[in-house]
Amino acid sequence: MKKLFLIVGCLVAAATSFAQHTSTWIWYPGDFEVWLSNDMQNRRTERGTFFPPFWKMDSHYVLVEFNKQFDLPEADEITIHAEGKYNVKVNGKMLPGMPSKVKLEKGKQQINIKVYNQAHVPALYVTGKYVQTDKEWLATFEDKEWIDETGKASDASGTTYVKVGYWNMDDPNEKPSQFKLPTRPEQAVSKTAHDKGFLVDFGKNTFGFLTLHKLQGQGNVRIYYGESKEEALATETCETLDILDVDLSTTQDSTLDLSKAFRYVYIEPQGNVQFNQVSMQYEYLPVEDRGTFRSSDEELNKIWEVAKYTMELTSREFYIDGIKRDRWIWSGDAYQSYAMNYYLGFDSETVKRTILALRGKEPTITHINTIMDYTFYWFLSIYDYYRYTGDKEFIESVYPRMQTLMEFCLNRRNQDGLMEGLAGDWVFIDWAEGLSKKGEVSFEQLLLCRSLETMALCADLLQIPEDKSFYAKEADVLKQKFFEFYWNDQKTAFVHSRVDGKQTDEVTRYTNMFAIFFDYLSAEQQQGVKENVLLNDNIKKIMTPYMRYYELEALCALGEKDYVMDEIKSYWGGMLKLGATTFWEEYNPEKQGAEHYTMYGREFGKSLCHSWGASPIYLLGKYYLGVEPTSAGYKTYTIAPYLASQEWMEGKVPTPDGEIELFVSKKNIKVKSPSGKGSLKIVSKSLPRANHGEIKKVSENTYTLELEKGIDYEVEYEG
Fold it and tell me: Which residue has the higher pLDDT, 642 or 156?
């Protein structure tokens, strides 16, 4: 494999131009994300017991040096804030103590500040008239700087300097280690006496800190949480609970320290403990809902709104799986959350934080979350991020970590150059009874091939031709093996696996549907997969929203949008008919009553608010509003609206420059975009008419209109 590409900044950074801007807290890139993810993921409890993640947890570098050179037009005085002990050098000269203020002379000034912190991430905030900490500072976790006799800083030993990490932390008095999500008060909708206590209903699934008002007495309060009424009342089997000791002679309001997920709460006071009302502090990630969707179908509107709320609840410091049980960052769940985010909040910061937290630190000794396929989703997420945002800077920063993770994967291939589960590997794919993980599973080879293609694309973006050539060749070789080893002409499909070098007879949906939207199949092969796999009831059905997302995407790509619309309304609408206020981890319409809440052999093991349940946001935005970037950051894009059974629909799709606004009825299309150059696809029985631009015919009943930003287009057509 090619040697690692390093993002190396010279020790003497380029002299800075002094446009006025705000200072921000900086740290070694990825360290705050790792530290914060550790803090968040270790909040999970199961029936009151601390329940940490089972995979390797990394830590931040405890000693980090920050540096930058400035060419000052006049003397300046800087103020220094740091999380940890620190020392300061100016032009190679160590200053005494830990100075909070430093005077700098006019001209070139090289600033080096070294920060040590074992407990929290070493972080730095510097502000002056001309000097501020920003994304252009450099950092290293090594101590190999050398200064020559002229006082000019150099990097004689090969130390790697990288651009610092940062977020939107611009207040020097709010240290990164003190970061918390905001909260707001919300009230319960009812409190009723039940058995020995009270059943409290908040009206919908929610997340935050429970508050007991006018709490008084001696004894304790037993608190049982439930995403359903049945769970809250099942004191012996509910997933989460709290026992609050009380010794209060006068009344006071008491808010619990640990956040929980719930709709219902059953509360039993013991001793002479009393309380009045129950409320909560709702915890949330402040993200604007830039994407919207409405149509003539109220059930579909409700599905979109509940999907949006599901996404809101599972968007925390990072994109997590579910709010009740794990509260962990799973790469497969996060990959889908990113896609939904691109059609809702377009929150690139949370995407980047989650990607960095999942990757962790070197050395790489295991798959992400210990799951082979979750490692590959991590690769896929990075190029998707670039495609939607156009943020090349992030690709540059994360590329070395992509290389080392890919090297780890390639070194684990067997003698045939294929991936199969080794000791400590979890081959997941999906929650499905009887799904074989033996041998060389075709799904894993498919994801590895796409990951190698992603590496080649990123290497090309960063203009590293030797890497592009290497990864592209590896991808081509694997793709040839993939078809040779797994495609079955008789079945017109990929088989599920190879065992002992031979194809198995089993055909599953996973590999086949991914191969469609990866565009790996010829038109004839696609048709065979559609008929023999995706529309074949004899092939084991998918029960999780996780894989339904991909199955429906594949069917949309095959032009089956009417079928997919019926499935969205049946599947997600089925959960709504059962009273769901958020979408679930798994839904099987054949189950009855409280049976819907069981999973993992536990009575209430299933998450009723799970990130992968929110996929209608993505499907409706990409395939029905029909908006998709065709080059990075929406410099070019397509709009191919599809009404299905609706009389009309309207919505907004976010881009880096603003929102694309769209209205579609059976006779009219209105569109306005703030970004790039677009192409509107119109399916019409006759030549459409537009108030701007030229409509071109591309095939029978299909036309296009090229879109320029900032223009209100109105099109009349015959649908």
Answer: 642
For residue 602, the 8-state DSSP code is B
pLDDT band at 158 (very low <50, low <70, confident <90, very high): very low
Q: Per the structure block, which two tokens stand in for 277?
A: 């009302």
pLDDT band at 36 (very low <50, low <70, confident <90, very high): very high
pLDDT grade, residue 151 (50/70/90)? very low
Residues forming beta bridges with residue 197, ordered by sequence position = 194
What's the average model confidence in pLDDT over 130-154? 70
Query: Which of 286, 168, 287, 290 lies closest to 674, judged by CA?
Result: 290
Q: What integer pLDDT is reported at residue 616 of this predicted model?
A: 97
> Contact 225/263 with Cβ under 8 angstroms?
no
The pLDDT tens digits of the residues spanning 616-667 come to: 999 999 999 999 999 999 999 999 999 999 999 999 999 999 999 999 999 9
Instruction: Pick the range with the lowest mean pLDDT from 159-168, 264-273, 505-514, 659-668.
Output: 159-168
Percent of the residues in the chain that have a pLDDT greater than 90, as a whole number:
93
Per residue in 174-205, is it b (16+ CB within 10 Å) or e — as a string? ebbbeeeeeeeeeebeebeeeeebbbbbbeeb
Look at residue 159 in the predicted model and tell me its pLDDT. Answer: 53
Tokens 């997590």 sit on residue: 320
N residues, the chain? 719
Q: Which residues pair with 611 in a beta bridge?
A: none
Contact partners, residue 448, CB within 8 Å, separation at least 6: 376, 409, 419, 478
Number of C-alpha atoms within 13 angstroms, CB side, residue 325? Answer: 23
Listed residue (105, 158, 127, 133) closest to 25, CA to CA: 133
Tell me the C-alpha to C-alpha distance, in Å, between residue 135 and each of 28, 394, 624, 628, 704. Answer: 11, 12, 39, 30, 42
State how far the Cα of 635 lies from the Cα of 655, in Å rounded to an integer: 10
SS3 call for 74:
coil
Q: How far apart are CA 443 and CA 436, in angstroms?
A: 12
User: What is the per-residue pLDDT across 410-420, written as a single tens digit (0 to 9) for each?
Assistant: 999 999 999 99
- Between helix 545-557 and helix 331-342 the angle, nearest 10°, is 50
**What Rg, from alpha-carbon coordinates, does the chain have?**
28
Report the alpha-carbon distance of residue 161 to residue 141 in Å, rounded.
9
Strands (E), 446-564: 487-488, 493-494, 497-499, 502-503
pLDDT at residue 587 greater than cutoff 80: yes
Q: What is the pLDDT of residues 329-358, one digit of tens each?
A: 999 999 999 999 999 999 999 999 999 999
Measuring CA to CA, how many Å separate 84 from each of 66, 81, 117, 118? 13, 9, 5, 8
How many whole angstroms separate alpha carbon 567 and alpha carbon 623?
A: 14
DSSP 712: -
| Encoded amino acid at 614, one letter | A
DSSP secondary structure of 268-325: EEEET-B---EEEEEE--------EEEES-HHHHHHHHHHHHHHHHHBSSSB-SBTTT
CA distances from 622 to 341, 625, 653, 699 (A): 12, 6, 9, 22
Mean pLDDT over each residue of the chain, to the nearest integer: 93
What's the token pair of residue 214? 């006018």
Question: DSSP letter string over 103-172?
Answer: EE-SEEEEEEEEEE-SSS--EEEEE-SS-B--TT-EEESS---EE-TT--EE-TT----EEPEE-S---T
Q: Residue 529: helix, strand or coil by DSSP?
A: helix
Instruction: Find all residues with CB under 8 Å of 473, minimum gap 6, and list them.
Output: none
Angle between helices 372-389 and 331-342 (to 10 degrees): 20
**Per-residue pLDDT at 12:** 34
Type of residue found at 101: K
Exposure of 685 by Cβ count < 10 A (0-12 exposed, 13-18 middle, 19+ buried)?
exposed
Tell me whether strands 146-147 and 627-629 are parallel, antiparallel or unpaired. Answer: unpaired
